[in-house]
Amino acid sequence: MPQLNTPDARLRDRFRAITGPAHALETPEDMAPFLHEWRDKFVGNAAMVLRPGSVTEVSEILRLANKTRTGIVPQGGNTGLVGGQIPDRTGSQIVLSLSRLNAIRNVDPDNNSLIAEAGCVLADVQAAAAGAGRLFPLSLAAEGSCQIGGNLSSNAGGTGVLAYGTARELVLGLEVVLADGRVWSGLRTLRKDNTGYDLKSLFLGAEGTLGVITAAALKLFPQPRELQTALVALDGPHQALELLHILAGISGGGVSAFEIMPRIGLEFTLAHIPDTRDPFDGPHPWYVLAELSGGQSGMADLMETGLGEALERGIAVDALIAQNETQREDFWRLRHGLSEAQKPEGGSIKHDISVPVSAMPDFIVKASEAVCDYLPGVRPVPFGHLGDGNVHFNVSQPVGMDKQAYLARWEEMNRIVHDIVQQMGGSISAEHGIGILKRDLLPGVKGQVELDLMRSLKQAFDPIGILNPGKLLPRKS
User: Fold this and answer.
1) CATH architecture of the region 226-339
2) For residue 477, what pLDDT is reported?
């Protein structure tokens, strides 16, 4: 790729004129929130932060950036965990914040579709759908701050993948500004459109390296008429998989969430997340948060029958069914607090992996044993979406160990865990993306043909290389 330039004062004036001075941030204090992610693992510098208020302004910014060889880093709600939204440390790149593009342009309940701009907070998209009597099922712990453009650019997963699929599967059409400033208006709301290449799929999961998503046509679904939530105590991950089969079989595929949590993760949450409590009388080694949902009544009976069978067969040790929405929210608070609760416990080496669902229990056991053998005293905290084969295999530092000395082992710990993932036919990135964190791991998990095709797409869409430079694509050796 050709060398990019650092914008001088004159060029910054030209960028500032596009958004207006109020939306061109240039002081260290104003730019600071856009230059680091919440874990502070990735921290950068920027020439400026631009906050366009229209697609036209995004187009003008990219057109100017392309002509002047200026690197642009698109950013949504800045909740990403792999550094894809953070500029490098040179101070030569411009952060493009989409937060002002936050309009719900259209809701069509008869077509079960909604058009939202990229800066819409996910919770607001959910609320707009609910206001029309529909469901937008993408749900994440960060849904109160993450933005739909970032969700789509990283192909976010979340807790509803088991029933509804990843973000990629919830998109009907896109509006995208290309590197040269041209706007692709692909906001079709059709379920069937067999007219050639499916261009929208190229931008979903591309992390802003091929174009900047400015709006999306999204799929909506009927609101479930009945939702049953249970917190189940078990002895291990193998029992969790058996429970999944029981609930899926008895409900005819009505399991809409199935989240596994270890006891240590629950203890972290109880210690560090306000308004949480242990709903059981005593501790258990593992827990599953399961939900059944459907368009007809009877889910309560199905949940009770399924849990009764699991208890009778010794698969479950104890089980609680939420009796109201407050109890349901209490159960989910335990699950959603798991990521934040690990931070006060010191360094955490994180893995966002997937393996076939059938292999997940063996993976959890084998990977936990492997990291404990590597560094005695580490505390594995595997949690997440067992129902779709994705867990966040996080490993907290030994108590009392120096945090930086522990985090210095990140690459070696990754290698141990990822080797097991590959042996089981899995992926080293299930839902968080690649960004900077996993960029240089790709040559070890993707073949040369695949990498060549990815680089060809980048060259075709962004020949100068201004879009999110240094992200996703590994450097050539």
Assistant:
1) 2-Layer Sandwich (3.30)
2) 58
